[in-house]
Amino acid sequence: MNQHLISRIAIFLLSFVMIFFGVQHYLHPDMLITKVPSYLPGGKVWVYVVGTAFILAALSFMLNVWVRTTAYLLALMLLVFVFTIHLPNYFDTADRDYQYQSLMNFLKDLALAAFALYIASNARHQKVLEETSLEEEEREAHRSMDLAHE
Known about the structure:
By secondary structure, the protein is mainly alpha-helical. 78% of the residues lie in helices and 3% in strands. The protein contains six helices and two strands. It has a two-stranded antiparallel ribbon. β1 and β2 (127-128) form a beta hairpin.
């Protein structure tokens, strides 16, 4: 398999997971409202906003449109969750089960943010790894090696 096909499969898998997460935000907002910090006004609205963001990011990745911008925004959103929700929840509870759940959410969102940053770093002209010929890939590899030797 070539790199382009493998990359597209990985992005589609991520997109399906994000669509699932987004739909869950609409189907079970009352379960997710507990994750919204009490200092944020709007309550349940944030659950729907995040669900919408997940779905729109997935569509952007699947349609290969505005990929770089979407990936950076997704990573930013997930890192905000990591440091403003999951990490404080981990340290602020005495309940071992809730602490474990917070740690799992911390790691999940951190991994998804890393994947989003990887996608953004590989997006060219707002698209992910546009199909290239073998000759173009070889020229790019030679250019990279030439730069490394300088």
